[in-house]
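JOB MANIFEST
job_type = single_chain_structure
chain_count = 1
residues = 227
[input]
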Amino acid sequence: METILIYLLPYIIGSAVVPVQIIIGVLLLKSPRQGLFKGVAYVVGMTTTRLLQGLIFWFVFTSSDAAAVDGSSGKSLVISTLLLILGIFLLITAYKQWRGEDDPDGPPPKWLTMIDSATPRKAFGIGFGLPLIGAKLWVFTLSALATIADAQLGQPASTVAYLLFILLAQSLLLLPIVIRILMPSRSKSVLDKASTWLTKNNRPIVIVVSLVFGLLFLYSGITGLLS
């Protein structure tokens, strides 16, 4: 299990540090009415989507030869292809952000304007929809599933590995909720500072993360396909 978590670590980190999902979660938690319930509903929505993605695409990977291991490199063709696609996509994202263009994985403006007035049900819907419109989140999840399938751990261990991926990928969404619960009186100040910092530094964070992971995944994908 420790080995598969090491292989999953790049996808976990990449999924966890997407700024826009953290900003939305913090803004929901800061809501004057039912902020905690909105924040929890938002994370539950994202978790539900990822569980459904896991159920659907795990069946796809395990019912075909997609998870067949390449004899020379020990890495499946699907994983190498996904890494190559993700690397190219992330490098394009870094370039567009450097040029000052909007994040292609950013939520529709309507979502951001409705955060303050959102009910927990709408917060669930935002969380449910965000992984579906975010191309980076899609490929991180699919790459994690392909990596787990390629490891051939067996059904119980594979399920645990994917659940750990979800938990760790959403750790930066769960942290503000924990702060809100444990420090209710101080949480507003902490969340305000976090929201301001993330909003101010959203673009440089996206550029750095996209560039670093883009180069990493591009290299891994190319070497996997050539080996």
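[summary]
The chain has one domain: 2-226.
Residues 2-226 form one domain.
exit_status = 0
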